[in-house]
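Figure 2 data, in text form.
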Amino acid sequence: MILFILLGMEFLFLTHVKKSESRSLVNMGADPTQSIQQYNAALEVLLDEEGRKDPLDLIGCLSEAMPEDILIESVDASVDKTSSVTSLSGVIRTKGTDDLGRTLNEFLEKLNKNIQGGKMLTPDDVDLEMNGRRTDDGTIEHHISFKWEIS
């Protein structure tokens, strides 16, 4: 019997709170239906953001794939709702053409493994300056650049 009385009092209390909240929303000029619609719209935006790739994650994957012989000059990562486009330019330091091919293939292999969801990069996708600049320590610096889209 005591439990029944307590449940009845709780019901009355919650009904009173609900009515006072509805009155306060109406007094403020807010429509509860409109508030729920705004909440749903904000939730939709957050869910869209969740599905996008983070440029910092892309740059982290890029740095993990980077061999010691490649120096980055610039990275540009732009992200929209459906995909991200990243472009890179840098320098490969090599001792010769064999070293150049090995370093470039190693970098592209690691990059393709680390970053999923895009077109696999091949050496043909990389703009490579074949006539490099010889440095004081005897290495040759070849400029490279490429761009790839990740969905």
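Caption note: Residues 2 and 38 are 42 Å apart (CA to CA).
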